[in-house]
Amino acid sequence: MRDTSATPERPAAPGPLAGVRVVELAGIGPGPFAAMLLGDLGADVVRVDRPEPSPLGTDPAYDLTNRNKRSVLVDLKAADGPGLVLDLVERADLLIEGYRPGVAERLGVGPDACLARNPALVYGRMTGWGQDGPRAATAGHDLGYAAVAGVLGLVAGPGGAAEPPGIPANLLGDYAGGSLYLVVGLLAGLHHARATGTGQVVDAAIVDGAAHLGSMLWGLLAAGHWQDRRGVNLLDGGAPFYAIYRASGGGHLAVGALEPRFYAEFARLLELGPDAPGQYDLARWPELRARIAERFATRTRAEWEARFAGTDACVEPVLTMRQASADEHLTARGTYVEADGVTQPAPAPRFSATPGALRRPPARPGADTAEVARDWGVAALDPSLNSAADQGE
């Protein structure tokens, strides 16, 4: 594993977002992940935590979505709470909030209040349903957003089309359709703000981003090359050469031999035999699938890994999280790192001149209040600074 953490002997590279200031109003899920990504790339992220504990109940030391951040405690329901946040906003480039529509406004830190204090601010709103529409005010989670967006129905379950869709943790909706689209929106807004001096509001709804992920498939659907049902298409497990198979003794292998030349290599190494159905003989796909499954069942996953290693057959093992962190290729690239005793993904993507780095462990709520007050010039955050000033220190 490569070590991307900063040390006194080897200070961290600034990252491509060095100098960008971000205020994150504490939440859970896609908002914190988006802020973490900005922090990984060098932004100065200040997370505004609430006085009460996180509803997740996780030890803050293991909440990796709070790495590369600093934390201050502010009670937004207290009389001085909104003003403290607005003091930070005045000095920020970006803001992230993930409340239900209207909540930030009621707390006094909505877009109008923030943009009045800082007209160049890019105000990022992270929600599942968006700021308007029939579902906007209702609760939800990743699974429901992905379901309504039409992307969860693309995910084959263990029993194929006859079974309910698989559940890809909270990666498809929260992070792919939510966090990543919010970050793109924030950076695009930042580019515009720096060119014009004018900020704006970014409405990043998970349903919008998740739907957008399916753009290619909507084109295929319109062209008649995609069926609007699961488990019968080229990329959703319908094709026997783009599917997952069980090996002898357990373990699975992912087959992605789409192109004819790759499929030919796959068929040769799997020893399908000359009488096997042709790759695109759709009528015989069930027979081909059964033949492939029968062959995979004759050897262990490790034996098939060795068989396909270094070839263009496009067959790879389905690894668990811990297995992935020890994979030869990912180890060589340093895709996973160990920092502060925790194995975790390294910052991504990679930059040749301004690489991201793990500069700070996960922020503990309120632990950085004095430091942020000093660095951002918001003395009201830390009464001790005012006391020191009064005493001439």
How would you describe the overall organization of this protein?
This protein is of the alpha/beta class and 393 residues long. It has 2 domains: 21-213 and 340-390, Rossmann fold, CATH 3.40.50.10540; 242-330, formyl-coa transferase, domain 3 (2-Layer Sandwich). It contains 15 helices and 11 strands. The chain has helices at 30-40, 81-90, 103-107, 111-117, 142-149, 171-196, 206-213, 215-222, 260-270, 285-296, 301-308, 321-325, 328-333, 369-376, 383-390; strands spanning 21-25, 44-49, 69-73, 94-97, 122-127, 200-205, 242-246, 252-256, 315-317, 336-339, 342-345. The strands form 3 sheets. It has a 6-stranded parallel sheet, with helices on both faces. A 3-stranded antiparallel sheet has the order 7-8-9, with helices on one face. Strand 10 and strand 11 form a beta hairpin. Helix 6 (171-196) packs across helix 7 (206-213). It is elongated. The model is unreliable at 7-11 and 388-393 (pLDDT under 50).
